[in-house]
């Protein structure tokens, strides 16, 4: 979908741009959570977890791909010929342009796999990188390399042809210049603003709503909108935003003030002070906006402890001690567990960095103009020590013989919030799950059917999630894997039958034979609205 969104129906269309799949590959598994650090990924995990996303992008027609900074098991990815020329081009038929990340070719010398910059340029070229993002490698060394070894001209011709083909496809030769005035009719177009608002509303996740404190009502009472991000604007644009305008952003305080007319909005400046606590004391309900600035989020802005910035836990505690109904809005680029939020907050919205319409989206969700529908795209740990934390885990050893075993002596092993989780202002009932077939051949689809009913009194969206577990395989398999999902919108008391398809490709796994197989055996199916979905059905793949 992202590839289609960027590239459209035709790359030559003036509204289309080349999509780039990145970072190839394993960049997100850096040791210690340190950007650019080494990664150690087994062949099994590489093929089952990391490479399938790139295979899907290639299948969707992605035009370009970017290699990563990291060393992968001893081979820097920007010189990994077996992955680039082998798996990507020969194995998956990718014929587009490959570009290095910023300086990743020169890093080959730094990593010690070549003795100098010329060697780095040669190694990257022969590995299949068509274009260097910066001039420190190819521009500085390729001419001399070809003079010393004319056979390299064949690799340069091939790389050049791919770069030129990409430019031809996108129409740069026919239309090399843009209309300098076009942005005046595009930026902040009402249709775009409306879509940005809808996307923000769908992405924000409601994680807590104790005692149904939300939604708030537009009535004659006082709401304190306080905290370090009550008036933030630049933060909501995120770290990788070089030309965004803070003037286009609606802050959370502004969003609430603009939306509700009968509510008196009380506020204070961002500094934690006694005035802020007194503001909370003067209100009927508190909306406390916490989180990280754009300068603490993003590339090369790692933190060793997964905690809110200094002082914010104390702030949440101080406001919580007022005893007023407390709604915490967390504005971060990553989910951060907050002990004081868990102790004191009646409600928690994970608002991320939702761009220009953050304030309006948060206000509309808080006051029930729309029901929350966002779902967590990752697992939220209870503490830093639980990392890596993800739902698709393998079975834990010793659990068979020692049921009283606990992975931690000082903490629960379960996440604070599971993958796929997100609350709504409605309640949904999942009916009995039925399968199209009790047994399927390895090359046949399986269809999973479930009836979903909106038991609440408001129109709401729900994401129906289908997980599987392969009971027996040639290698260990995760206890659950998300294989299909569908978002549906239901009116109060409305029911709908949702059909989810499990294809042979989605059921296959990379096993002991070092290839993908959809071998015979039983498959458990779990249907629900997060990764804690219960066992719903079982079918068999025939031998």
Please state the overall shape, judged from the principal axes of the Cα atoms: globular
This entry's quaternary arrangement is single chain
State the end-to-end distance. Answer: 34 Å
Radius of gyration: 26 Å
How many β-strand runs? 21
Low-confidence runs of at least 5 consecutive residues: none
Helix and strand content put the structural class at: alpha/beta
Largest sheet: 6 strands, mixed
Give the strand line-up of the largest sheet: 6-11-10-9-7-8
The fraction of residues assigned to DSSP E strands is 15-25%
| Global mean pLDDT | 95
What keywords describe this structure?
543 residues; alpha/beta; 26% helix; globular
Written account of the structure:
- The chain is an alpha/beta fold.
- The mean pLDDT is 95.
- It has helices at 2-7, 43-59, 81-91, 107-111, 117-127, 138-148, 152-169, 183-186, 190-203, 252-259, 274-281, 312-320, 339-344, 358-366, 504-507, and strands at 20-24, 64-67, 71-72, 75-76, 97-99, 205-209, 222-226, 264-267, 285-291, 326-331, 347-350, 428-435, 439-440, 446-454, 460-470, 481-490, 495-502, 509-510, 516-517, 521-528, 535-541.
- Helix 5 (117-127) packs across helix 6, helix 9 crosses helix 14 (358-366) and helix 10 (252-259) packs across helix 14 (358-366).
- The chain is globular and about 80 Å long.
- The protein has a six-stranded mixed β-sheet, with helices on both faces.
